[in-house]
Each structure stands twice: as structure tokens, then as C-alpha cells.
Design goal:
CATH topology of the largest domain: Glutamine Phosphoribosylpyrophosphate, subunit 1, domain 1
CATH class of the largest domain: Alpha Beta
Number of strands: 23
Protein name: Amidophosphoribosyltransferase
Shape: globular
CATH architecture of the largest domain: 4-Layer Sandwich
Function: Catalyzes the formation of phosphoribosylamine from phosphoribosylpyrophosphate (PRPP) and glutamine.
Distance between the termini: 26 Å
Helix content: 25-40%
Family: In the C-terminal section; belongs to the purine/pyrimidine phosphoribosyltransferase family.
Catalytic activity: 5-phospho-beta-D-ribosylamine + L-glutamate + diphosphate = 5-phospho-alpha-D-ribose 1-diphosphate + L-glutamine + H2O
Strand order of the largest sheet: 3-2-4-1-10-9-11
Largest sheet: 7 strands, antiparallel
Keywords: 4Fe-4S, Glutamine amidotransferase, Glycosyltransferase, Iron, Iron-sulfur, Magnesium, Metal-binding, Purine biosynthesis, Transferase
Bound molecules: guanosine-5'-monophosphate, iron/sulfur cluster, magnesium ion
Length: 466
């Protein structure tokens, strides 16, 4: 998901809609905005579909007045997965004795089901199936008066990944979980305006200046143009999601002081060193494989070419939740540039292999177009474990790499060769010169290593074996 908020600007909801538009790659199922102004109080709108199809209508935006506003773009990983109901669309809103608050959450709460059971037993009335709603109920039960203090109480009981943008009548609040699994940044706009965003690319769109990242375990409370920093949690060693660098974030964003584009290009350089092969052209599987393909081509000296053309009017295939749509999706989205491919030995670079649906289809399309050889180079290690922290990977059984070796995957996909970047190579590309520290990994890489930095309690209860 993507979260965004602004304060201290006229018609804040317009800025939020723009920010959400720039974060659309983080969630395309639905979006919601909450705003507040003294005359009308809190207002909210939740809609299915793209930001551009909903939140640009003047009639709708007029219902969201005020200088303080937050928004959320949804990609379901918990709750009604693949079957989003409007009641699951964030931001969630709650009215407490200290006044109302709205929250927008990116990440996944790993003990949400246990918390929900406990809360329902104690009388909470849940409206949605979303894991994020627990936070509002925990806040309602806190004995603290002020909303930020209630939120601290609530979040100390929550496990897993959360980057949250929240608001009260007067405050904009941002929080990251102690490990800082999902991103969140602070920006400055105009004289005394501030913005919080999942990624820096959404600051650019509203002309805000990137100030800094919210630190893992930090809460910022912004009021009257001032930013106050709090540390509500026990300090921990950060474990940012390494897959944000590989795929999830936009290449024009800055993560951990590094350009995402540059990191991805460097992944391609590492791949070319680790897994060279003689071929005529290097083609990306667009768009997610493009920067890595550029790096691979630069390092190997094999010319870069656009062998696959992407229809710009399709979203991210993976994020379309049902199997059927996903199967068609590849063809709806990608087509082979036949004239270029015929008779060539082709290196295809993609960011990841999950179920193998994309790679299989693409291989068929490329061979059908007359390629002589097809070599897959993948910009992440084999995805052999599900993510429980906010990225929608399927159950373990459906992950190709969970049941097959690299050689078996190669013959299953029917390609001439298949190589993944190593975990150390990936760490080098994100700037860790000595690779991964096996005793204290610098990132979360559970989907590749199976080492989960936060125990997935709900999953273990349901029988998931580590
Ligand atoms: P597959 O077709 O193998 O199931 O999925 C791989 C494709 O899904 C890649 O092209 C990648 O760009 C895309 N993808 C989108 N979202 C995700 C995600 O959350 N995890 C992974 N590993 N790949 C994703
Ligand atoms: Fe990111 Fe993978 Fe960790 Fe999920 S399991 S947070 S996708 S690195
Ligand atoms: Mg892709």
C-alpha cells in the first residue's frame, strides 16, 4: 500500500490526491482520503480503482476541504484479499474522548488475528476485515488522553510491519515500526507545510522538498508547522525490506539515501558478473526489469534492446489478485517486438520469479517470435518464502522456488539458462560492500532466506512452518 499526508496547505486533499497518484504503483485496488477543517469537521471519501478516475473530480474534492488531509492507496495483502470491500478501504476513522483520528497503514500486522479475537471478546465492534483496524480499537481502549499517546499505547501491542500516516483535528502523525520494514519519508512544502509519504516520488509531484526519512521506531507529530520526534518503542536493529529496492518502490524514489534506479542498475551489473552468458541482445521485461537490464548490458557489453513492449494502459500484473486475470494479464500487458527478436540469442532480465506465470508466458512469446536462445537473468534471489509484512506473495506451495531447484525451474520454464542474483550480490548492489552479514542481516530478506525478523504469529498459529 501507499500512504500520504499533508498539513499546512490550502485544500490539502488536492495535494493528497496527487501524492496518491504518484504512489499508485503501491496499490491499485482502491483509495481513500480523509480531511479536516474547523467548519466541517472530518470528511472522508473511499473509492474503488485508480486515483485518477476518482479523486480528480471537482465535485468529490469539494467534499474534502481543509488544510490537513491523509490518503491511502490499497493493495490487499490481508483481510479481504482479492475481494476488496469498500469497508476495507482506508483511512480508518475513530472518535475518542480526546477527539477523532484517522489512520492509513502500510504493512502487515503479524498478530492481528490474535488481537482481533481479544478485542472482540472485550466488546470492540469491527467494521472491516482489515488487520489495520485493530490499531483504531486499541487506541479507543487506551487510558491516555491525547491521541498520539493513545497511538503509542496501541502500537506497542502491535507486531509486524507498519508505516502509518495519521491525523487528528490539528496534528499530522507519522510512525514507523521498530525495524522500519516499510518506507516513510518527511517532506516540506511552502512556508509551513509538511508532507509524509511512503516514497519520495510523491513529494516530487507536489513540489515538496525531501527532508529526511522517518527513522525506524520513530513517531513524528506535526502541529502548527512544528515537527516533534518521539521514540515510543524499544530500540531495535533496523531491517528494511530489501524487496522495496528490487521491485516495490518506484525507480525515481530515494531509499536509504540511494537512488532506487541506481540500485537496480547495480543489481544488473552484479548479475552480469555473477552469471555471464554469450548472447546478441539484453532485453528487460518491462517495466520492473528495465534498470537491471541496463546494468547488465553496460557491464557485459551486450547491446540493450526493447524486445518486449509494454502496454502503458495496464497496471502491475502481479497486483491483480485472481489467478485468471493474472494469466491473461501477461498478454494484455506485454507483447514481443517480433522484428527485433527473430534469429537472436536473447537475455531477458526480470526482477523476480514468483509463480513463474510471467516468465513462462514471455518465454513462449519470445520463442514464437523466432528467438534462437532465451536466457533468463533475475534481479532477485529465488522467492521461496511468503512475505507476511505487506507484500502479497502467495502461499509457499505456489512459489516456484519453494518446490524446485534452479535447474528444475529452468527446465520447467523451458529456457536455455536461468540464473538468479545471489543474496550477497543483491546486498552489494544496495550498498553493502561486504554483502550480507549472516549473523545480523542488514535488511529483511525473509522471502529469499526464510529468516523472518518478526515471528509471523498468526501464520504459525494457522500451521505455517518456518
Ligand atoms: P510470477 O509471474 O512469477 O508469479 O510473478 C513475477 C512477476 O510479478 C515479476 O515480473 C514481478 O515484476 C511481478 N511482481 C509484482 N509484485 C510482486 C511481488 O509482490 N512479489 C514478487 N516477487 N514479484 C512481484
Ligand atoms: Fe520485503 Fe521480502 Fe521482507 Fe516481505 S519478506 S518485507 S517482501 S524482504
Ligand atoms: Mg515484472
Amino acid at each position: 500500500c501507499g500512504v500520504f499526508g499533508v498539513t499546512g496547505v490550502t485544500d490539502a486533499a488536492n495535494f493528497v490526491a496527487l501524492g496518491m497518484h504518484a504512489l499508485q504503483h503501491r496499490g491499485q485496488e482502491a483509495g481513500g482520503i480523509v480531511s479536516h477543517d474547523p467548519a466541517h469537521g472530518f470528511n472522508s471519501a473511499r473509492r474503488f480503482g485508480y486515483v485518477r478516475d476518482n479523486f480528480t473530480k471537482a465535485s468529490l474534492m469539494e467534499t474534502l476541504p481543509g488544510s490537513l488531509s491523509i490518503g491511502h492507496v490499497r493493495y490487499s495483502t490481508a483481510g479481504s484479499k482479492g475481494n476488496t470491500q469498500i469497508r476495507d478501504v482506508q483511512p480508518f476513522f475513530g472518535e475518542f474522548s480526546a477527539g477523532g483520528a484517522a489512520i492509513a497503514h502500510n504493512g502487515n500486522i503479524t498478530n492481528a488475528e490474535a488481537l482481533r479475537r481479544e478485542l472482540i471478546e472485550r466488546g470492540s465492534i469491527f467494521q472491516s476485515s482489515s488487520d489495520s483496524e485493530c490499531i483504531i480499537h486499541l487506541m479507543a481502549r487506551s487510558l491516555q488522553r491525547q491521541v498520539p499517546e493513545r497511538m503509542k499505547d496501541a502500537l506497542r501491542r502491535v507486531e509486524g510491519a507498519f508505516s502509518i500516516v495519521a491525523m487528528t483535528r490539528t496534528k499530522l502523525i507519522g510512525v514507523r515500526d521498530p525495524l522500519g520494514v516499510r518506507p516513510l519519508v518527511l517532506g516540506r512544502i511552502g512556508e509551513d507545510g509538511w508532507a509524509l509519504s511512503s516514497e519520495t516520488c510523491a513529494l516530487d509531484i507536489i513540489g515538496a522538498e525531501f527532508v529526511r526519512e522517518i527513522e525506524p521506531g520513530e513517531m513524528v507529530v506535526i502541529e502548527n508547522g512544528e515537527v516533534a520526534s518521539h521514540r515510543p518503542f524499544q530500540p531495535a536493529r533496523p531491517r528494511f525490506c530489501i524487496f522495496e529496492h528490487v521491485y516495490f518502490s518506484r525507480p525515481d524514489s530515494i531509499l536509504g539515501g540511494r537512488s532506487v534506479y541506481e540500485t537496480r542498475r547495480q543489481i544488473g551489473v552484479e548479475l552480469a558478473r555473477e552469471a555471464p552468458v554469450d548472447a546478441d541482445i539484453v532485453c528487460p521485461v518491462p517495466d520492473s526489469g528495465t534498470p537491471a537490464a541496463i546494468g547488465y548490458s553496460q557491464e557485459s557489453g551486450i547491446p540493450y534492446a526493447m524486445g518486449i513492449i509494454r502496454n502503458q494502459y495496464m497496471g502491475r500484473t502481479f497486483i491483480e489478485p485472481t489467478e485468471q486475470i493474472r494469466n491473461m494479464g501477461v498478454r494484455l500487458k506485454l507483447n514481443v517486438n517480433r522484428a527485433l527478436i527473430r534469429g537472436k540469442r536473447v537475455i531477458l532480465v526480470d526482477d523476480s520469479v514468483v509463480r513463474g506465470t510471467t516468465s513462462r508466458k514471455i518465454k513462449e512469446m519470445i520463442l514464437d517470435a523466432g528467438a534462437k536462445e532465451v536466457h533468463f537473468r533475475i534481479a532477485s534471489p529465488p522467492t521461496s518464502w511468503p512475505c507476511f509484512y505487506g507484500v502479497d506473495t502467495p502461499q509457499r506451495e505456489k512459489l516456484l522456488a519453494a518446490t524446485m531447484t534452479e535447474d528444475e525451474m529452468c527446465s520447467h520454464l523451458g529456457v536455455d539458462s536461468l540464473r538468479f542474483i545471489t543474496l550477497d550480490g543483491l546486498y552489494r548492489a544496495v550498498g553493502e560492500a561486504n554483502g550480507r552479514d549472516p549473523h545480523a542481516p542488514q535488511y529483511c530478506d525473509a522471502c529469499f532466506s526464510g529468516e523472518y525478523p518478526v515471528e509471523p504469529a498468526d501464520q504459525i498459529e494457522k500451521g505455517f512452518a518456518l
